[in-house]
Structures are given as C-alpha cells and as structure tokens.
Amino acid sequence: MSATGVVGRWHQSAHVPVKESKRGSIAFPGCSYSEITVSMRKVVTMICGALALSVVVAALAQGSASSLTVTPGVASDPRNFEGLWWPHEGGPSQGPPPDAPPPEDASKAPLTNAAPNAESQLRVVECAPVQQMVIAGGGLASLVFQNRREIVMVAEFGMDYVRTIFLGRHHPLHVSPQPNGHSVGHWEGDTLVVDTIGFADRVGKDRGLHTIERITKVSGGFTDEILVEQAGMPPRQQSVQYDLRPDQQFNEYVCEESFDRYQLINGVLDNPNIPPSRERNEE
Amino acid sequence: MQGTRVVVAKLWATSALFARLLLGLFVFGSASAGTSDLTGPWNLAAPINALKTEQNGAPPLTAVGQTLYLQNQTHRSQDPIKRCLPPGVPRAMMQSGFPFSIVGGKTLVGMMIEWNHLPRVIYLDREHFDNLGPAYLGQSVGHWDGSTLVVDTTGYNDATWLDNSGLPHSSALHTVERIRRLGQQELEDRITFEDPTIFSYAWTAKLTFRKVSDPVLKEDYCFARMGIDIVNK
Predict the structure, then answer these.
(1) Looking at residues B133-152, what average pLDDT do you find?
(2) What's the whole-model pTM score?
(3) Is residue A55 within 8 Å of A213, Cβ to Cβ?
(4) Which end of chain B is more exposed for a tag (fewer CB within 10 A), N or C?
(5) Which of A80, A118, A85 lies closest to A99 in space, CA to CA?
(6) Tens digit of pLDDT for each residue in A60-93?
(7) CA separation for the pair B88, B160 (Å, rounded)
(8) Which of B18, B103, B170, B213 to mutate to test the interface with A (most CBs of A within 10 A)?
(9) Chain B: closest CA distance from residue A158 (Å)
(10) Containing H/E element for A244?
C-alpha cells in the first residue's frame, strides 16, 4: 500500500538524531537547516516538499479508501476467501461420513454420496451437528469471514457449521474436542493448507480423525482437496469445489424455530395459561 | 543573509508543523484502516440484566411498550432463549459466560456468538437488502468512521427481547451501533434504539466488553446444553 511506504520514509528520517540549531533555526529529523549549506537548502526543501506532498496524497488515498463501500480486489486476491460461496453446480457437495463403514478399497472410494445414517438424521432433528465431517461449508452455501489471524466459515442452512481456521498457529498441546474440530492453517504459495484434529463424537470424545485440506482459489471459486486420516482406516481423499456468488444472499436459518413451531402446532409448547407471543397472534 | 535565514526558518517551521499534522492524520488513518483493532473474543465486562440509557435511566417506553414489558416480566417462561431461539441484538452479545468473537475483513465483519453458535453478519460493501424477511439478528450493514465501526441494523422480527429483563421491541426496531476499542482489553458498543411503537424517542445504551484470553470459542448447542430431549419429548 502506498501509504505504508510513506510511513516508512518518515520512520527512516526519524532515525536521524534531531539536533538543536546553534543559530536558532528550526531543526526537523533528517532535515536540520543549521548544518547544511545554502546550496543544499533548495535540494532539502524540494525533498521535504516532496515528502509532504506524498504524505498528502497518501492521506487522501487513505481517506478515500476508508469511505469506499466497495472494496475491489477481494475476488481477485488469491489469498482472500471473503464472501458467499455456493457448491459448484454438478460437483460433489457432501462431506465425507466418517462413521460409514469403509468400502473394500477405501482409498479409491469417493467420500461423498453416502446416505446419512440414522445417527446423523437424529442429530439434524436435535439441531446438533450431524456427525459428518464438515468440509468448507459442508456442501452448503457458506459465508466466509477473514482477517490476517483467522478464517471463519459459516454454513447457511442449519447453522451447525461454524468453523474457525486459525492462521499461522499450531494446535494447542491439549485440544478440547469439538464437533467441528480444531483447525489451523498456513499458506503454501497461494494455497491455504488446513490441518484439523479434535473432532468430537456425540459425547464429546475425540474421534481420532485428522484432516489435511489444501484450499486454492480458482477462476470464480475455490477447490478444497481433502485428505482424511483415521486410525485403522486407509487414508481417503476427495475434492470439492465452490463458486463465489456475490449475487446471492446469506439467509438466517434457525433450526430451533422449526421445533418451536412443531410444538406449537401440536399443543406441546408451554403452559396454556401463558399468552402466545405477538408473532403467533399474527399467525 | 540574516533576513533570508529568518524567512527560510519560518518556511521550515511551517512545513514541519504541516508535516507533523499530516503524520498525525496518517497515524489516525492507519488505526482506522481495517477491523483488526476489534478482532478477538469479547465478553460483557459486567453482567447486565436490564438495559439503561447512557444517563443511567430507564428506557423511554410508550404505553404499548410498557404493556409488553410488563407482560414479558410476568411470563418469564416465555423468554425466547429458554426455547433456544436466538436472543437477538444486543442480547446475543450480553449472555454471561458466552463470549463473541469479531472477525473483520474488507467486505464483511462477522460476530461469531458462542451462545448456540450464532453468526451475526455485517456487510461493509453494500446497502440493506430489500428482499430479506425479518430475522432474529436483523440485517446489518456497516462502515468505518475513523476507528469506530458503525453498524446499522433493520429487518428485525419481534420475537426477541432486548435484554434479560424482557425489554420488548417491535419489528420496526432500528439500531445504530458505534463499536470501538477502549484500549487493549476493552471494547465499547454504544447502541441507539429507535422503535416508535415501543419507545417514545430514540435512546442510547452503552455496553462494555472485556477481551477473553482464550481465542477458541466453544461450539455451543443450546438444546444439548439445556438438556432438551427433542426426539423423545
């Protein structure tokens, strides 16, 4: 950023000791008039003027950048995943079911297209994680937040998939298992390499899964190459692809609301003496 | 010669002052460029049951607002969060023991709320959507005003309470938040509520948050935490 360069120059000037003028002239870091010849004054004046001008330009640029509501370059930045992503049409859209029994040659078998088992269906009803590994957004539209320290992926439907990838960090010595595990990432060129451990099972016990993902932006989207390792099973690989969809919206989905309405309809909810909410009155 | 020196000295003094002003301007600009200043998990500095105005007064309720407030206080079992429904804004950030993490980038700011793993989305690069239905967390757009993130939210439904005491609102609620750092460990959210149905005039509350040392939020699932057995109920 040009403004950063300007700051650097001022810092360099600041490294030069400020000296008091013996003749009462005013000194400035790097530009003390008391110790320079008259012939040099014009040169220094020009340099200082140029510095001041560049600071003005930088400050104006900074101000205009802050006031802009559209930030160009995010989509074209290979290391910026911000935005709303949809599963690539026609591509695999489901994460691998680690609970499914391994096929005969598991290393070649796709990790997708396995029907959810009874356990995972139960988890959906409970508004809990389905115990299927989440990859990117778990095959759902996903909103990605990003700063230099972390990347957060939020799946739209279900809201069960909120996944944080900590950048430039290692896993802690003791990872508390969580349904979506603990993810750390680093850059290899423009590829984000994500290492995840600490996937919790239903009772919070570590499932012993380890995934390594290589996420790379491609034209209009990104690919996620996933390697899944689990003790006693051959490693499995899969690739999923997402498209950037700035034309689409991220909608709020509240799983618990469905259950609430179900109970209301079936007369299960709450004490009948309690008046229904205003929203229900309207219904 | 002496005259020339004086002129040059004055010129130099003027330029030095100008440069220092610009330097100050730049430092201020640097602080405002990006959301990294707000990044991190935050927790309410002190538990708040009922929101107060900045002057520590009661919110200016209309007659309708007073009626609904009394109703909510009387029927506390109707508290939406007891059924694991989203607490809304700002209550979602006010749940004791459940921090939220701000993750800000160039076009989006996310508030990842630990309570039932709720994501709050703030768009920095667009105006309000005009075709989204009402939502528990509303629809938020934001911009930077210096080092303060200004968040404008509309599109709320009326199914949440503004605080734990049962302060109501209608779907006409409009909030404007000014979120800024108050040093390394504190975050301030000055939130202005505008809702002609419930409040007789717009009023502002001030929330203060403290930074949480552990950057990893727990994956909280409300039904499981509350011990609500849906399948067998």
Answers:
(1) 93
(2) 0.72
(3) no
(4) N
(5) A118
(6) 444 333 333 335 578 889 999 999 988 887 654 4
(7) 6
(8) B103
(9) 11
(10) strand A233-244
> Considering only CA atoms, which of B71, B60, B33, B64 is closest in space to residue B147?
B33
**B213 and B229 in contact (C-beta within 8 Å)?**
no
User: What token pair was written down for B108?
Assistant: 């989006």
Q: Using CA atoms, how far apart are residues A179 and A163, in angstroms rounded to an integer?
A: 10
Contact between A128 and B117 using a beta-carbon 8 Å cutoff: no
Q: What is the SS3 assignment for A200? A: strand
Tens-place pLDDT, residues B78-119: 899 988 899 999 999 999 889 999 998 889 999 999 998 899
Half-sphere exposure for B111 (CA within 13 Å, toward CB): 29
Question: Where does B61-202 show beta strands of DSSP type E?
Answer: 100-104, 108-113, 118-123, 139-145, 148-154, 174-181, 186-194
Task: State the residue for tokens 């509303």.
Answer: B138
The token pair at B144 is 């930077």
Residue pair A89/A95 in contact (Cβ under 8 Å)? The answer is no
Q: Tokens in use for A118?
A: 């009874």
- Out of A213-222, B161-170, B187-196, pick the least confident: A213-222
Are the C-beta atoms of residues A171 and A184 closer than 8 Å to each other? Answer: yes
* Cis previous bond, A177, omega within 30: no
Question: Residue A55: helix, strand or coil by DSSP?
Answer: helix
Contact A143, B121 (CB under 8 A): yes
How far apart are alpha carbons A171 and B87 in whole angstroms? 32
pLDDT of residue A25: 36
Are the CB atoms for B182 and B77 separated by under 8 Å? no
d(CA A202, CA A128): 9
Residues 124-143 of B with CB under 8 A from A: 124-126, 129, 131-132, 135-137, 143
Q: Which residue of B has its CA nearest to A248?
A: B129
Whether B231 has its CB under 8 Å from any CB of chain A: the answer is yes
Strand blocks (E) in A36-141: 83-87
- Bridge partners, A24 (sequence order): none
Q: Which two tokens stand for residue B197?
A: 């149905």
